[in-house]
């Protein structure tokens, strides 16, 4: 589950990570109120208005703007809220901005220069360990740094049995070229950041930029956070952070029905039990010369109700020209699935206007095929993998 910047910062602050402070506003008038409140709390008179969407690169797309007085706050917030913000990380048509973060300006001049660093904590799946990735080259072009000058990106691997060690945090501060108070602040920052990552069951915390202010404080100016969905049952407070307006409606609906569904671009809808078989089925569709319209794992209990829900979800995609059902009857009996398909079909009747190919393999497969063939419905059945591929081809050619 992805979070908004302001939510990520809220988690960070609760673990003692210093952040660029800000308040959320839903419209221009509210932005002005929040700016006044922020001045009372922080003393700031300049503000940064930041679009809150689930995508990075907002600065490049015009979603992060400096406001030097309340009139500018009103004008800029008014422009950003409601806009379709296009960044390198959004879909081509952009993402609608519903609210902004009115934040304190932290790039004020002072005794020393400001510096922007990059830092992220993430799970290295190959090593089975958490890792802190960091660089002196923070800011808006970190992707380019990674591509052209990868030696400027450092990694610190964390041993899960002992956690982040003091010497590791100090090595990070040292490699970032810090000294004096900024060095000490960075050590504290890294330690608190890692505790926030572990404590919230996240799989990624990306802070870009981490800022060294002109008075040598270290703070998180941005926060991109992904919490592991499998941990939401014990992170109830953060589960509330879910913003459904940022997710594809069809995926939200499938998720609510307990179906594992991912929307794709092709024309052949698929309904499969088991993630491995679903992947193989997508290969099968490609092998037949077509592209899958979705990934859909109906899980172990492919009963009539679930089959019907899955049908409805697949058919909401206007690109679907055929549906391939590929079920292995291991725990579930094929004849029961077949009955489910037939029942769902007769319940939905006119709503289904594309050819359906059903392949059932495993317990009672022959019985299942018989059931479908005798149902009198225009459902094509198959037993072998190849047969199913041929049927898809025939149906779409
Ligand atoms: P992103 O573009 O989505 O990654 O959004 P960020 O939160 O990282 O902001 C983009 C850029 O805006 C940062 O890299 C900073 O250079 C700039 N920025 C952010 N906060 C401030 C601020 O308080 N003052 C000034 N002058 N610039 C800021
Ligand atoms: Mn950023």
Automatic annotation (TrEMBL):
Binds 1 Mg(2+) ion per subunit. Belongs to the succinate/malate CoA ligase beta subunit family. Residues 9-236 form the ATP-grasp domain. The keyword Methyltransferase does not apply. It catalyses: GTP + succinate + CoA = succinyl-CoA + GDP + phosphate; succinate + ATP + CoA = succinyl-CoA + ADP + phosphate. Mg(2+) binds at residues 208, 222. One of its GO terms (biological process) is succinyl-CoA metabolic process. ATP binds at residues 50, 57-59, 106, 116. It is an enzyme of class 6 (ligase). One of its GO terms (molecular function) is succinate-CoA ligase (GDP-forming) activity. Succinyl-CoA synthetase functions in the citric acid cycle (TCA), coupling the hydrolysis of succinyl-CoA to the synthesis of either ATP or GTP and thus represents the only step of substrate-level phosphorylation in the TCA. The beta subunit provides nucleotide specificity of the enzyme and binds the substrate succinate, while the binding sites for coenzyme A and phosphate are found in the alpha subunit. Keywords: ATP-binding, Ligase, Magnesium, Metal-binding, Nucleotide-binding, Tricarboxylic acid cycle. Pathway: Carbohydrate metabolism; tricarboxylic acid cycle; succinate from succinyl-CoA (ligase route): step 1/1. One of its GO terms (cellular component) is succinate-CoA ligase complex. This is Succinate--CoA ligase [ADP-forming] subunit beta. Pfam families: ATP-grasp_2, Ligase_CoA. Its cofactor is Mg(2+). Substrate binds at residues 273, 330-332. It comes from the Bacteria. Its EC number is 6.2.1.5. Heterotetramer of two alpha and two beta subunits.
């Amino acid at each position: 589950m992805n979070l908004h910047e302001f939510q990520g910062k809220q988690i960070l602050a609760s673990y003692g990570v210093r952040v660029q402070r800000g308040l959320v506003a839903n419209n221009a008038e509210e932005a002005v109120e929040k700016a006044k409140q922020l001045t009372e709390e922080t003393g700031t008179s300049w503000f940064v208005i930041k679009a809150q969407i689930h995508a990075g690169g907002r600065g490049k797309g015009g979603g992060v703007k400096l406001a030097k007085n309340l009139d500018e706050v009103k004008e800029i917030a008014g422009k950003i809220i409601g806009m379709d913000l296009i960044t390198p990380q959004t879909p081509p048509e952009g993402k609608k901005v519903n609210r902004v973060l009115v934040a304190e300006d932290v790039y004020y001049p002072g005794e020393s220069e400001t510096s922007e660093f990059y830092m992220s904590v993430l799970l290295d799946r190959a090593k089975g360990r958490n890792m802190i990735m960091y660089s002196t080259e923070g800011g808006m072009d970190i992707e380019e740094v990674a591509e052209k000058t990868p030696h400027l990106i450092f990694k610190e691997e964390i041993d899960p049995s002992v956690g982040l060690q003091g010497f590791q945090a100090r090595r990070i501060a040292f490699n970032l070229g810090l000294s004096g108070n900024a060095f000490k602040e960075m050590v504290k920052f890294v330690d608190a950041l890692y505790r926030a990552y572990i404590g919230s069951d996240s799989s990624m915390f990306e802070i870009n930029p981490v800022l060294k202010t002109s008075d040598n404080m270290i703070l998180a100016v941005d926060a991109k956070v992904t919490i592991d969905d499998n941990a939401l049952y014990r992170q109830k407070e953060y589960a509330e952070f879910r913003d459904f307006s940022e997710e594809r409606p069809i995926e939200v609906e499938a998720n609510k029905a307990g179906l594992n569904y991912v929307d794709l671009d092709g024309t052949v809808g698929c309904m499969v039990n088991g993630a491995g078989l679903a992947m193989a089925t997508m290969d099968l569709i490609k092998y037949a010369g077509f592209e899958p319209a979705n990934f859909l794992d109906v899980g172990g209990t492919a009963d009539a109700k679930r089959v019907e829900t899955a049908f409805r979800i697949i058919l909401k995609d206007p690109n679907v020209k055929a549906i391939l059902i590929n079920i292995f009857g291991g725990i579930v009996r094929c004849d029961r699935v077949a009955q489910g398909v037939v029942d769902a079909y007769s319940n939905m009747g006119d709503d289904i206007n594309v050819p359906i190919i059903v392949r059932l393999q495993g317990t009672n497969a022959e019985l299942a095929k018989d059931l479908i063939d005798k149902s009198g419905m225009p459902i094509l059945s198959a037993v072998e993998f190849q047969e199913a591929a041929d049927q898809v081809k025939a149906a779409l050619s």
